[in-house]
TrEMBL record:
Region of interest: Disordered: 275-295
Family per record: Belongs to the short-chain dehydrogenases/reductases (SDR) family.
GO terms, molecular function: oxidoreductase activity
Organism, scientific name: Actinoplanes teichomyceticus
Domain Ketoreductase: residue ranges: 10-195
Name listed for the protein in its UniProt record: Short-subunit dehydrogenase
Key words, A-Z: Oxidoreductase
Amino acid sequence: MGGRGSVRDAVVLITGASSGIGRATALAFAADGARLVLASRSGEALAEVERDCRARGGQVLVVPTDITDPAAVERLARLAVRRFGRIDVWVEGVAVGIAGPLGSESVDEIRRLVDTNVFGTVLCARAALATFRAQGDGILVVVGSLLSLLPNPMVPLYSMTKFAVRGLALNLQQAVAGHPRIRVCLVLPGPVDTPFFERAANHTGHQLRAIPPAYAPERLAAAILACARRPRRLVTTGVVAHLALVAHRVAPHTTESLVARWSAAFLTKPASAAPGPGSLFDPPPTGAVHGGHRRGRLRRRLGERLGIAQARRGERARVARDGNSRIR
């Protein structure tokens, strides 16, 4: 990369880059001068992100990819290396969801969910670590969920897949423990204000929403950027998410019960909605960073600015550390 802890000129591959956390992460890395490889199913949505990243000064390679296809994932890694010579950071951010009690979904929806969230994540992790071993270093950032620790009975299958993703990340961390230049980071977001909820398969009978208090995607992007600069084993963001992790260590049964009741109760809106598969099978042609679930213009602006400020503060801290090291 561009220097110890710097992402300038680093080659960063991001899956799920067309929307939500992935899109916010792409914009954050572009603003810091990274060279980007952006992947998602929709080429049209990726073109939007490519334009925005180039406007921030980033070099961009767009590779429309369905991560459930082994050949497509291998092609993604191959094209990234062919274009930029290496991959410094691989951000695995793809996720789809199903909301509704167990049994309300179709078998095809279950297969698609597991294929994307579990099988696709495995394929990407394999490709990332193979590339890192060949070049001698690299950072894999796996975006999981607090629902890999805490239950929500309205999204049991989604939560199940995130338990699997967390299990994979924990095992990979041990697998690379003897290689100090290859790191695996696990990011566990709490509720985030993204379009994920409108695009999930929905069998609840009601419209979905981000469980309050939903955080700005820019804050998760800052956490991912921090992992690229200074890898950490596990990262989350926001006071509520940190409190939930601490509470779960102290009183797991009570915390699981409270979170399950809260999250199930506030996942839906009063307005009704017809059942449907969302974007499980067909990607939307456009993407967005935000889902519009945070009330109030001031709160939205503060969350977005806080995320951007956290990203910039991390870079300033890195520069200060490097300067102090040179003085010594």
